[in-house]
Amino acid sequence: MIHRMGSVEPLRGVLYADPKFASGFRIFGQLTLTFRYGRDDEEVMGLRFCNEAIIALKQICPKVETDGDPKEDLTPLQYPQ
């Protein structure tokens, strides 16, 4: 999602992996949050002001069986303490 001037755009995406190409490989998806701060003119000078956090990392293909345990579907940030 993208947050600009008080509005939030929804997260959208499509992944297509050719089964012939993906055969024998594992495909992972990763959702990363990038928080930018600072002025745009500073980025032109080669300075980059941002923080990144990996929000979710999950194996997409082949599908992993979870044995019905709901904790298996949680991301590392969602695990109960």
Overall description:
- This protein is mainly beta.
- The chain has a domain at 30-65.
- 11% of the residues lie in helices and 35% in strands.
- The protein is built from two helices and four strands.
- It has a two-stranded antiparallel sheet. Strands 3-4 form a two-stranded antiparallel ribbon.
- A hairpin with a 2-residue loop joins strand 1 and strand 2.
- The model has no long low-confidence stretch (mean pLDDT 74).
Tags for this entry?
Ig_E-set; 11% helix; 81 residues; Arrestin; two-stranded antiparallel sheet; 2 helices; mainly beta
Number of strands: 4
Percent in strands: 25-35%
List the strand order in the largest sheet.
1-2
Series of secondary-structure elements, N-terminal to C-terminal: EEHEHE
Biggest sheet, open or closed, and with what strands and sense? 2 strands, antiparallel
- Terminal CA distance reads 27 Å
**Helix segment tally:** 2
Query: Percent helix among the residues?
Result: 10-25%
Radius of gyration: 18 Å
User: Mean pLDDT, nearest integer?
Assistant: 74
Basic shape: elongated
Query: Structural class, from helix and strand content?
Result: mainly beta
* Unreliable segments of 5+ consecutive residues: none
GO molecular function, one term: G protein-coupled receptor binding
Family: Belongs to the arrestin family.
GO cellular component, one term: cytoplasm
How are the elements arranged and paired?
Blueprint: E1 2-4, E2 7-9, H1 19-22, E3 27-36, H2 40-44, E4 50-61
Antiparallel strand pairs: 1-2, 3-4
